[in-house]
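Sequence in, structure out.
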Amino acid sequence: MLTVRKQLVTDEKHRPIAVQTNYDDWLRIEQQLKIQAPSDQASLIQEVDLSCYAGTVNLTEAP
């Protein structure tokens, strides 16, 4: 049996909202579940040209 070290993340009312685990543990979980991990983490980020949005927000005061 695989021992997984984990931490619960809670909100202000101490209700569990997420779980954090070691990356090494996560890789072992993926392997056991036969989940295909992305070969390149950078491939998860999509390149989007945001230049078309330049100047579209007009602020009434300094940010």
